[in-house]
Specification:
Helix content is 72%, strand content 0%. It is mainly α. Helix 2 (31-37) crosses helix 3. 0% of the residues are buried.
Length: 154
Amino acid sequence: MVPFKHTKSELSFQKNYSKKAVALFKASFATTNISRKYPLLLSLHRGIDGALAGVIISGAVLTGLALHSQHLWTLNFSRLHFTKDLIHRIEESTAILEKYFLASASSPNAMVSTKSAHLIYVDKPQERQTPFKDFLGNMYRDVTSLVHPISNGY
């Protein structure tokens, strides 16, 4: 296989093209001439560049925050699933224990039936007065004694 050889004119064209590209690239960052000719345009470009950088940074921060919250939600969801499984196992164990104790318990005929004579009535406990309640009660009593009924007319 014969390697591809460039001719002299092709090489000189590539060198000129690369020199022009480098010159254009350097000229785009040279702000001395532009700042003298178009100061408003330069400040507009700088403002837009700053706003673009701010949008990119805030987008990256919000993306990181969203991914972090999704990760936490995934962890909590797996814990919730594990907890539901444990609750289901506890309910099954409780049902098995209840079934065992009901089978081993004596018959309900041996229990005493409830009668109204067997009921015990407990008196309502007396309400304890607190200083704050006493203060509010006294204030309410004082205010209501000062208020006179308003009669209609003159």
